[in-house]
Known about the structure:
The chain is mainly alpha-helical. Helix content is 68%, strand content 4%. The chain has one domain (2-172): Skp domain (Protein Binding, DinI Protein, Chain A, 2-Layer Sandwich). A two-stranded parallel ribbon has the order 1-2. The longest helix has 54 residues, at 87-140. It starts with a helix and ends in an 8-residue tail after the last helix.
Amino acid sequence: MIxxxxxxxTLSLLMAGAPAPAQEGxxxxxxxxxxxxxxxxxxxxxxxxxxxxxxxxxxxxNELQQEYQALQREQASLENQxxxxxxxxxxxxxxxxxxxxLAFRQRSEAAxxxxxxxxxxxxxxxxxxxxxxxxxxxKDDGYTMILRRSAPAVLFFDPAIDITDIVLRRLDTGGSDSxx
Length: 180
């Protein structure tokens, strides 16, 4: 019970900005927050990643849009020819159009899966580049833990413990920024 009260007191004092009294055998807790979403949007690495994703998405969207429009034209053409085509010819063309539509749906779903995979790969690449920087800041500045701002457990924090700007500077300078 006393240890829990002591930890609570230490965290309370830390959040209030006052130095916590160190007692023998106690661990000093120093916590920081990093906003990964902001890093992804504002860092050059994150911007490059978002640009690659947007370019891929736009390219696939254009390809699929053109294919969809071609299918619509075929559908309209088939409906216009319905009265002049023999029943068997109409059925054959309709079946071909249905097969083409099914193939389009499959390509569309595949493109969506590819995009999600690419998003995951870009996120992993970003986290791989960011992790050593956050770890170095944690070690250099004596943090006990550094939490993601969007983590479910972070309901409140003092903006003074947000080190996103420091991480952002180091990300954009290749991890070598020593000005804090």
